[in-house]
């Protein structure tokens, strides 16, 4: 009887996951196959670019140099390096070394990414648009020019770039490369449906008047990049994404640092959802947020959370069974046992097995399709291995961090803090 | 915005996704039902074949009444190959258990299979007696729930069967199956707890054992058992 209930529950879950998969896949088809004719700017407005720093040291050079190498007219960009009160001496030295190249260094005297950015925007920025660039990130040459195109629409409050991993070396970084690529497509899809709820630090651009109207970045928020996007949407501003405007970021090379980073993001997501829940749920006052899409996003997050204990349960059962068989019976191999194993697989094939196959096929298709859409080409061996590791290991890691973020953000109402000793 | 679609178009995508998933789900359920529909008759057919083999061996046993080494060799060999057939069918039935589409038909097969296994056990007993205990016959009764180790004990017995070249023949039965002979066995052999091993008809042993312990126990009851040498 328990088996029957479990089977029915798994079948319902499979149908829901397939539905979500198809929904996003239909959007992927449109966003990745749409006409790629490049839209050009008709005029070049003045742009400010703020680089908040903490202790990035030499990495800050890469960041500033990437903006200096931009193909945007030099006389139209004003670069501000915003120092935290706690910014270390080395980073300060790097920042000031760029003054002779026209970079304005602002010692804000305050701490916190949102606070230093607000300080610079409120006190220095006179331009119509302001971009942010994390000090461990780099802007592509064409990024600024491409990001400005959607601002022709006066309702657009922010435009986000596609954030990719900068020169991944270690295994932890290589696997994040795939995660960032899939996020590029997912964020484009979110912007397509009007619910892009993050304006990431590496390269997002804002209309200064919109920031001013909504009261700038929330200085108490540790995921101010999410908060600002949600805030803009609820106030009726669009948050757009330009898929071929690239920025690059240095990602954590240790799993522990990555876990902290992701936990901070996800707890911040839930924290912000709790913060804006009344606005989002209100009948008339939810701005541009499409609530049916919110349901889909939450269902997707829910499945990434429940999938983990479910899969962990099965893995645990298999390991335990294997362990007991080996310790009690020993390693038994004969043609008869092999044949019986094959028979067992064949006879246990049922509706759920079919759903499993469909999920695997369409899931992998959507991943390879996204990869091809962003990278333009696929390395059959390298990318297949990368995706296999991503699906089998990294997705569980993500599920775990989502769960940790949920517990902290919703149950304990606390956010995983950005420790001063940790980057990102 | 150029690439932004209206909420109406979001609804269109949702509808499209719903249609696609409805199509896939219908396909999966139809194929699933078709497969389930095939499984029951296939299992039934295998069961009938095994029952016929059992019947044939039973007749052979009746024919070969004298204890000649030739007839015993034929009977023991027949018992060994029938044991493998029954184990294969047991695997098939257990694997098909995940499918709940034909639960009642499946339960009927499970019950019929239990009868067949009991017939096999009795036949093994008869051949053992006829051939002056050349084989070690074991019936293992396990509870349906609450004994995760019983699975391993079943596998251990299967392993020892293979090791002994089927001079050990084991019949593993769910003690909670709702058929009267099992309840009768409980009373006749005074079985009060599970797992219980009934060794060579008249010895009962209660409790879980690992492979080495199991081998020792079996040797205790039947020192002639070839793995004891």
Q: What is the makeup of the main sheet of chain A? A: 8 strands, mixed
Question: For the CA atoms, what is the radius of gyration of chain B?
Answer: 24 Å
Give the strand tally of chain A: 8
Secondary-structure content class of chain B:
alpha+beta
CATH class of chain B: Alpha Beta
CATH class of the largest domain in chain A: Alpha Beta
Q: Could you tell me the number of beta strands of chain B?
A: 4
CATH topology of chain B: Glutaredoxin
How many separate structural domains of chain A? 2
Strand content of chain A: 5-15%
How many structural domains are formed by the residues of chain B? 1
Order of adjacent strands in the largest pleated sheet of chain A: 3-2-1-4-7-6-8-5
Characterise this structure.
The complex is a heterodimer of chains A (424) and B (229). Chain A is 57% helix and 12% strand. Chain A is of the alpha/beta class. Chain A folds into 2 domains: 2-28 and 295-411, no CATH class; 48-251, Spore Coat Polysaccharide Biosynthesis Protein SpsA, Chain A (Alpha-Beta Complex), CATH 3.90.550. Chain A has an 8-stranded mixed sheet, sandwiched between helices. Mean pLDDT of chain A is 87; it is low at 419-424. Chain B is built from 6 helices and 4 strands. Chain B starts with 6 loop residues before the first helix and ends in an 8-residue tail after the last helix. The model of chain B has no long low-confidence stretch (mean pLDDT 84). In chain B, α1 (7-63) runs antiparallel to α2 (69-96), α1 (7-63) packs parallel to α3 (103-130) and α2 (69-96) packs antiparallel against α3. With 229 residues, chain B is α+β, with helices and mostly antiparallel strands.
């Amino acid at each position: 009887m328990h088996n029957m209930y479990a089977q029915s529950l798994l079948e319902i879950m499979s149908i829901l996951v397939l539905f979500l998969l198809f929904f996003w896949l239909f959007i992927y088809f449109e966003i990745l196959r749409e006409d790629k004719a490049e839209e050009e700017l008709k005029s070049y407005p003045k742009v400010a670019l703020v680089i908040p720093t903490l202790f990035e040291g030499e990495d800050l050079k890469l960041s500033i140099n990437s903006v200096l190498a931009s193909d945007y007219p030099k006389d139209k960009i004003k670069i501000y390096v915003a120092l935290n009160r706690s910014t270390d001496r080395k980073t300060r030295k790097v920042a000031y070394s760029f003054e002779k190249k026209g970079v304005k260094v602002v010692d804000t005297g305050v701490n916190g990414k949102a606070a230093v950015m607000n300080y610079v925007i409120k006190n220095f920025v006179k331009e119509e648009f302001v971009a942010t660039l994390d000090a461990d990130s780099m802007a592509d040459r064409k990024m600024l020019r491409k990001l400005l195109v959607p601002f022709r629409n006066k309702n657009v409050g922010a435009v986000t770039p596609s954030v990719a991993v900068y020169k991944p070396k270690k295994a932890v970084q290589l696997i994040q490369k795939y995660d960032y690529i899939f996020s590029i497509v997912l964020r484009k899809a979110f912007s397509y449906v009007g619910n892009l709820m993050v304006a990431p630090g590496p390269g997002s651009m804002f209309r200064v008047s919109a920031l001013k109207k909504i009261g700038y970045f929330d200085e108490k928020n540790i995921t101010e990049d999410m908060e600002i996007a949600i805030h803009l949407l609820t106030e009726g501003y669009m948050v757009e994404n330009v898929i071929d405007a690239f920025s690059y970021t240095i990602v954590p090379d240790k799993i522990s640092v990555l876990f902290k980073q992701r936990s901070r993001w996800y707890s911040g997501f839930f924290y912000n959802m709790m913060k804006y829940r009344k606005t989002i749920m209100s009948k008339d006052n939810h701005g541009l947020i499409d609530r049916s899409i919110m349901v889909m996003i939450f269902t997707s997050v829910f499945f990434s959370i429940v999938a983990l204990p479910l899969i962990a349960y099965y893995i645990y059962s298999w390991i335990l069974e294997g362990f007991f068989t080996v310790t009690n019976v020993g390693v038994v191999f004969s043609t008869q046992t092999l044949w019986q194993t094959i028979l067992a697989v064949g006879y246990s094939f049922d509706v759920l097995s079919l759903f499993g196959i469909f999920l695997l096929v369409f899931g992998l298709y959507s991943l390879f399709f996204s990869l091809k859409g962003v990278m333009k080409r696929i390395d059959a061996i390298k990318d297949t291995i990368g995706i296999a590791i991503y699906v089998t290991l990294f997705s569980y890691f993500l599920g775990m961090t989502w769960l940790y973020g949920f517990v902290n953000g919703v149950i304990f109402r606390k956010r995983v803090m950005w420790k001063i000793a940790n980057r990102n | 915005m150029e690439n932004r679609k209206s909420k109406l178009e979001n609804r269109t995508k949702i509808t499209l996704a719903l249609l696609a998933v409805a199509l896939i789900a219908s396909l999966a359920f139809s194929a699933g039902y078709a497969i389930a529909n095939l499984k029951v008759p296939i299992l039934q057919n295998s069961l009938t074949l095994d029952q016929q083999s059992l019947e044939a061996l039973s007749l052979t046993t009746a024919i070969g009444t004298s204890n000649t080494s030739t007839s015993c060799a034929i009977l023991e060999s027949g018992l060994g190959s029938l044991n493998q057939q029954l184990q294969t069918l047991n695997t098939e039935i257990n694997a098909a258990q995940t499918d709940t589409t034909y639960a009642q038909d499946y339960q009927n097969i499970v019950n019929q299979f239990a009868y067949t296994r009991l017939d096999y056990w009795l036949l093994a007993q008869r051949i053992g007696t006829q051939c002056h205990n050349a084989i070690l016959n074991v019936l293992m009764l396990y509870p349906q729930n609450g004994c995760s180790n019983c699975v391993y004990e079943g596998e251990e017995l299967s392993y020892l069967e293979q090791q002994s070249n089927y001079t050990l023949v084991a019949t593993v039965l769910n003690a909670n199956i709702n058929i009267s002979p099992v309840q009768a066995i409980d009373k006749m052999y005074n079985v009060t707890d599970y797992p219980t091993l009934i060794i060579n008809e008249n010895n009962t042993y209660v409790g879980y054992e690992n492979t080495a312990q199991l081998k020792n126990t079996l040797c205790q009851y039947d020192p002639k058992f070839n793995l004891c040498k």
